[in-house]
Amino acid sequence: MTHEELLPSTRRSLIHRIATAQAEGRAPSLVAAIARNGELVWTGARTSVASHAPDENVQYRIGSITKTFTAVLVMRLRDEGVLDLSDPLEKHLPGTGAGEVTIAELLAHTGGLGAETPGVWWERSSASLRPELSDVLGEQPFKHPVGRRHHYSNPGYTLLGSLVEALRGEPWEDVLRREVLEPLGLTRTSGHPQAPHADGWAVHPWADVLLPEPTEDLGLMAPAGQLWSTTADLARFGVFLMQGDDRVLGADSVREMRTPAAPAETGNWERTYGLGVDLVGGKGYTLAGHSGSLPGFIASLWTSEKDGLAAVVLANCTSGPPVALVAAELLQIVAEAEPRIPEPWQPLPEVDPAVLELAGPWYWGTNASVLRLAADGAVEVGPLSGVGRASRFRPNGDGTWTGLDGYFAGERLEAVRRADGSVSHLDLASFVFTREPYEAGAPVPGGVDPEGWRGLA
Fold it and tell me: Residue 438 pLDDT > 60, yes or no?
């Protein structure tokens, strides 16, 4: 696709939004970037230092966005068959005292572990105070029953980082660099700051004065929040989270990361969590990404697959601008000002006549659905009109399909044929779909009244 720059009016709206955020949030500096359709199309910066605005290559600390990188490493191990997400941690990393928790529960923050480490504030203290996993977890690591609720856990991602190190046999950061950063070209993302980088500041809540924040090496907690990065690198990472990259993780695996894996909190049904990915949905859209903070820095990355957009906002202050909200609003500005232009319609390059025969309306009882052909032998089944169950199905290569999403995710679809080869009905998760509502002679469970349809005399 040809790279297209944003319109001048859109760029002005974006710079106005980040200028307002930097001024009202009293941030020493704030940087932002937008990627569209896989390309970096806009960067912006505001700073309190005259003639010294940072650009898209200046590093900021990104805090818990690091967790998404760690999750990618775990998903790679799963895709290689080294582990299963349903495995208890004890199977691969014994002796932690939290081994009953599954790897999926750690990824989704549903393992019941505490949010923070015991002892002093770990983000502002030396990692030497926590040399072992037992120091990270404490004597009572569980705050909730395992698997029952979403409870954000920094120690949980420390366990995942230690899991990666145990299975790869080398430090977490070395694995990350080789398996994710280098293949994706994220040359300005690192565990420790590399010039040029921003300094972290605390801004007094009631006076316009600053205090420098310490920059601690997080030690064992590094997989939960150690990384430094830039708006350009994070925008590129956002594209990866939407599209996948077979050198790192394929499209199906990153889609799995963006799929809700944790229950929503009561009263906040529009927000949940996937596998290392924060999810916000509602009003016909879904944002996927992560935010992060460490003393001196706040960060946010959001993606909108529907719009083909990724937005990054970074600031070098402990608190101030609502960077997650600002990043979401940057996406909204572009999506509304320059709606995504659909790709030209193209006919399928080839079609299997046996699959084409299935296209059109089908009935589950009296509910009308339609089967449509998609690319690469896939099909879609959804309501003929109105609201109903809709799913996409990938071909299994044996004349059956498996659901990819919606109600029928993971379920099997088969076209059942008669002895003469003609199609009798569709079998979908035990439901019988026929060409006519309660078609006479079809194997409808419970049978079809032989007198057929009638009026009410």
Answer: yes
